[in-house]
Amino acid sequence: MRRFDYHRAETLEHASRLLTELGDDTFLFNGGTDLLVEIRERLRRVRNVVDIKQIPGLSDITYNETRGLTFGALVTVGRLENLSLVRQRYPNLRSALASLGSIQVRNRATVVGNICRASPSADTIPPLVADGAFVHIYSRTNMRVVPICEFFTGPGRTVLAKGEIVTGITVPPAGDNTGKAYLKHGRRKAMELSTVGVAVSLAMDDGVCSDIRIALGAVGATVLRAPQAEAMLRGTRLDAEAVRSAADKAMEECTPISNVRASADYRRDMVGVLTGRAIKQALETFA
Amino acid sequence: MKRMVEFTVNGEAREMAVNGCCSLLDALRDEVGLTGTKKGCDVGDCGACTVLVDGEPVNACLMLAVEAEGRAVETVEGLQPGVDRLHPLQDAFMRHGASQCGFCTPGILMMAKKLLDDNPHPSDEDIRFGLSGNICRCTGYTKIFDAIKSAAREMEATRP
Amino acid sequence: MNMTTPIEQREFKIVGKSVKRDDVLEKVTGEAQYTGDIKLPGMLHGKIKRAAIAHARIKSIDVSKALAYPGVKAVLTHETVPRVLHYGSPHPRSASCTKDQYILDHKVRFWGEGVAAVAAISEEIADEALDLIEVEYEALPGVFEPEDAVQLGAPLIHEVGPGGNLVLDPVRVNRGDIDKGFAEADFVLEGTFAGGRPHPAYMEPNVCVADWDGSNKLTFWTSTQTSFMVRGILAEVLGLPLTKVRVLVDHMGGGFGAKQDLFQHEFLCALLAKETRRPVKMEFTRHETFVAGRSRHPCKIWLKQGFKNDGTLVARDMKLVYDSGAYGSHGPGVTIVGTTAATSLYRCENVRLEGRCVYTNTPINGAFRGYGVVQSYYALDIQMDEAAERLGMDPAELKLKNVVRAGDIAPSGHPIIGHGLEICLKHGIDVLDWTTLRGRDRTPDPKRPHIRKGWGIGCEMHGSSAYPGIKEQGNATVKVNEDGTVTLLTGAAGLGTGAHTALAQIVAEELGVRFEDVGVIHGDTDVVPWDIGAFASHTTYLVGTAAKMAAEKVRAAVLARAAMKLQVSAEEIDLSEGKVFLIAEPDRSMTVSEAMGPSRGIPAANIVANGTYEPTKSYSFAAHFTEVDIDTETGIVEVKRVVPVHDVGRVIHPIAAQGQIEGGIQQGIGHTLTEDYVIDKKTGRSLNAGLVDYKMPLSMDMPDIETIILEAAPDPGGPWGAKGVGEDPIIAIGPSIANAIHDAIGVRFHHYPITPEDILKALREKGA
User: Fold this and answer.
1) Between B134 and C2, where is the model more confident?
2) Cβ within 8 Å, pair A105-B59
3) What's the gap between Cα B83 and its chain centre?
4) Is C436 exposed, middle or buried (0-12, 13-18, 19+ CB in 10 A)?
5) H or E element: which one contains C671?
6) pLDDT, tens digit, 9 for 90 and up, residues C682-695
7) How many Cα atoms are found within 13 Å in the side-chain-facing hemisphere of C240?
8) DSSP C260
9) Is A148 inside a domain boundary?
């Protein structure tokens, strides 16, 4: 491992300043479960890390019926995973949280860190995209809130400018008429990076689908929506035939690549299978 | 640049100067001198370095030593309740053949301790899920499952 | 194998019981010392600069910047290390190996090969210094597949050896008359098979520590299965007498065969320590255990067999090509063992086999549990299943008809003892009610019609010891101390199998003392008797017999001493559970402690004896019965249940034996379904050298395993009939899964790993 210097930020302003002033190879250090791996595996050259874990106010979790679920940058995957509210209201997010890495990793990793890493296969991104989450971003000059689907600009890339820090995420409220699911495909049942991940968030009114969002992980440069498939399903009763056609459409909408984990063709196939299964599972909420 | 850091290891206060980039795992092994916690991958994939920090299992390789400031770290060396007594898990691991090469054992013991502390009657599925971040390459896990179930029964029988 | 010696029967007091393993006490408390736990005063850390090119000539190496880097104490390159051609394999004097390695060479033969080494005051500084070493390469065309390597005009990887990128001359085995066999056949099956590159992935990355003293003696701690081989090759290459090299290994975190080579980092660590006159530790990263470790030989097999309509196998023609990677390592041994193994398993009088082993510019393949046989029996067993299908027979029935039996000639050339495989198969068939099982619905869950079930059987046999390739010798020294306790000295390595416990059980049983009174000293080449190494499933069989022989001798000496003290003749007394007593008058007795200790006019004494055993070979057998679920939409295969039925002769420690079987099954499930160390076919670069993308089955993936061990065919060559068990399970599980997959979805696979993509593709082609 190469050496790096450790800096502990006291405030967001302090962290932001360190990130700008310490030079190019300076990275924000939160859960560390990706950054330390990248350093040890020589994937990223790092001279300084700025630890934000002592900054007050970034560990809160709040929920209300109008604003939804908001959690701070320091909230770990494990903490959210074990929250009954998440289990009940956001089963898609809960499923993604419980499938990320291992228990040990989840006790350190944060959801905000997972999205900032911007991996196309990140588990927590598809459910957050399907739920239409918002990302809260701090900078020394202004604060901004970005819809999560606009947050990513490419693999490992986000809209964050130098010195900007994500302080939290808000997930809109989950109404009683909503159904959600996240399905992950991997070769093992745990300790997996997703080969394909599909999140679905849908709303049913009188047996008719009033809204649906489908988010596809690991089959594009960023997590993708499947807008045409969604459009085919809105206003339908989500019967088997409609779901099958939409799943076929989702296969057309994704842009997977081949690598050591799976071929592009197989990933595309799995988008079809998992989209169908995720919708079915999301509907089980109403059964 | 080295920094001073102070935390407890198995209840004992420890103070040491470490580089900012030093992992908790390296600090435990090299500075504290407790080598029971093993380095199987150094990137959080194998679980051999599992320790409890403030009661929660983490990979000691993925935590910096400076982050342990003020916290309570438990390692396999702290598992024995007394000099001549084994924790029921340790005894069960011996009796059931749950440890072969033993390299994964310290991490699995710490994970199993956490599992049984939280859930004294784990189902087979709970045990499998609880150990899913700990690689064992020798046993096929069968004997580890046996040992944890046996320890759970033992702990239940001796619980006041 | 000795057909004439009857196996001693007795009422066992210690053997056959799962006594507590002493070494495990240290493991559960965290006190067990592994090589990586060693920290010596002034110790430096070594790191290896690895080539990012698969085949090249080194034009120049500039280490000046690295040497000038603060904290760096030494840098070694091919220009500064001794240039001694040596064997990578620890069996240098076995028939077929070629010396094909230098410590560092001016040529790179695989992506990741070491080209320089650094010692520095910290691991981080050593690591950083690697970037400052400037290497200029002249790229050479690489070959990454055996079929390309053997083409005329293919770039040659080595100047030594038989040429044409062959590691050794082709291994040919002929029995009977192959043409006559095929002429008698009613039908012929022919197919090609392929095995991937599974990696042992032991939990403890390779590590060593070297320390030279003022007398120019090297003390060397290393995680090895073969400490005396390490001593021998190190001494030879460094030009030292064996008295000047002491190799130590206490606990080790697994090896599974792969920790048998003498690795490049081991030489470099010793040389860096010599150069700096300070102790040096060298520890692999997990990435390095893949790149610079050893994996199983990828293999391509062509198999053609002739059958009669009654299921009799009349001809077997087989060609095997093993991919050795960039160096020979265990290629010769694997090729010989894997090829000759195909003379057996299923009876066939007319056999023609040809095995080749080929260099490629890929990471080195070496010894790994199942040693060439995993590959060849995968093909044999699957084709037997196909023959059953063709005949409309139950595969269990056809396998039962053809399995080897007592008196058949084993691959070693000896007659097989007992009906081990037949008994295992029959037992499994009965326990599982196999015929009823086969008749069950393949889609039992109407809610999940995409899940199909299947059941399959895989058979195997495997030798304990490397005979006849290596004429082995097992040694043990047993001392009876003056307080009646017993010390066993053994060179056998403790990989974690419980071998030392089994050896102590054997000594206690034979000598007649309590198990707790036997201590085991191991892992110090200056102290313990010479040992060939822990491999070939032979420790209990080979060293166990030597230990029994030594115990028998000290027992006689103890009895003689007690007789003197009791003033009777030695024939009148017996020894059991630590007590010497008169056979006719059991109340007249003394403890072994009293016999050994001082008494009036007789000082205390120490009784010592050696046991040396040079065995041939025994064979262990297994039949695995496996149930799979296949998701026909995703192609994911889930192994749900395995019933392994093993014959291991006399069981010494049942739980340890079961543990070997269950661990072997875990690895075999991985090999067959998820594990493959992938090398890019264009560049030779590793694509998944880490534990996330190299996918071993973990706790949630493992099926229920219901292990059955039968003492069906004890072999007189082992202690009370004991045979090996370490390698067997990994051989049988693979074909049992492949056959179960066929049972579930009607598709035959001839390769491993069988990926979800393969399943979906095959289902589509089948038109499902």
Assistant:
1) B134
2) yes
3) 18
4) exposed
5) none
6) 999 999 999 999 99
7) 22
8) G
9) yes
Domain that holds residue A11: 5-51
Q: Does A6 touch chain B (CB under 8 A)?
A: yes
* Chain B residue with the nearest C-alpha to that of C200: B137
Main-chain phi, psi angles of A276, to 5 degrees: -60, -45
Question: A161 CB contacts (<8 Å, ≥6 apart)?
Answer: A139
Are A208 and A279 contained in the same domain? yes
For the stretch A151-187, what's the b/e string if a residue is b when 16 or more beta carbons lie within 10 angstroms of its beta carbon?
bbeeeeebebeebbbbbbbbbeebeeebbbbbbbbbb
**What is the CATH number that goes with domain C22-32+473-613?**
3.30.365.10
ipTM above 0.95, yes or no: yes
Q: Is the Cβ–Cβ distance between C724 and C464 less than 8 Å?
A: yes
Domains and CATH numbers, chain B: 2-78 (3.10.20.30), 88-158 (1.10.150.120)
Nearest CB neighbour to A107, from listed B23, B57, B130: B57
Q: Which residues pair with A63 in a beta bridge?
A: A69
Tell me which of A144, A171, A198 is where a domain ends.
Answer: A171
Q: Please name which of C574, C587, C495 lies closest in space to residue C539, comparing C-alpha atoms.
A: C495
Provide, rounded to the nearest whole percent, the portion of chain C with pLDDT above 90.
Answer: 92
- The Cα C425–Cα C103 span in angstroms is 48
d(CA C625, CA C627): 7
d(C-alpha C412, C-alpha C420), whole Å: 17
Residue-averaged pLDDT of chain C: 95
Tokens of A263: 């071929």
Interchain CB distance below 8 Å, C698 and A2:
no
**C312-362 per-position pLDDT tens digit:** 999 999 999 999 999 999 999 999 999 999 999 999 999 999 999 999 999
Tell me how far apart the alpha carbons of residues A226 and C264 are, in angstroms, rounded to a whole number: 52
Name the nearest CA neighbour of C224 among C367, C374, C371: C367
Structure-block tokens of residue C10: 């007795």
Out of B101, B134, B143, whose CB is closest to C254? Answer: B101
C752-762 pLDDT, tens digit each: 999 999 999 99
Task: Give residues with Cβ within 8 angstroms of A93, minimum separation 6.
Answer: A80, A86, A124, A127, A128, A131, A171, A180, A182
| Residue A68 Cα, gap to closest chain C Cα (Å) | 34
Among C328, C274, B41, C285, residue whose Cα is nearest residue A102: B41
The minimal CB distance from B140 to the residues C495, C656, C705 is found for C705
Q: With an 8 Å Cβ cutoff, are A190 and C699 in contact?
A: yes
Contacts of A41 in chain B (CB under 8 A): 43
